[in-house]
Task: structure prediction
Amino acid sequence: MNTHPFLRAFLAGTFVPTLILPLLLVAFIVIRLVMKVQIPIERGLIFPMAVVPALWGLWNMLYLGWHERTHLAVGPHGAILPLLLAPLGAIVATSLGILHLGATGFTWFQACEVPYGFLAFGLCIGVAVYYLVWKYIVGYLNHVLGIAA
Result:
């Protein structure tokens, strides 16, 4: 009997962002409609809501396929993902006019100037959060679904 381990890996990978992104959508609605913030945040939500869950699922499938060769644990494997998502998101945001790169920092939505030091700090926090989420939540789901190595 074929147990479809890659399908189960995809579903385990998409679980966390599928739960988190609707919460971000609620926060967006509150910020945009209730607090009347006039920054076009919806342009920045399209990319994460469309791409991130699928990338998490594909990344977990890649973990399942590569684990026998690399013997890398699920936590460090997941911590690599923001190092790929951040440049990809920056490319998309720059091409859509959401993000403008400058000499000392970047401008987000033509309203918020952020120095590059904060970007480095945020990336470190993102890597740490991804490590913990992948180690404890995605790893647990992989174990429950019978695909943990």
Q: What stands out?
A: The two ends are 20 Å apart (CA to CA).
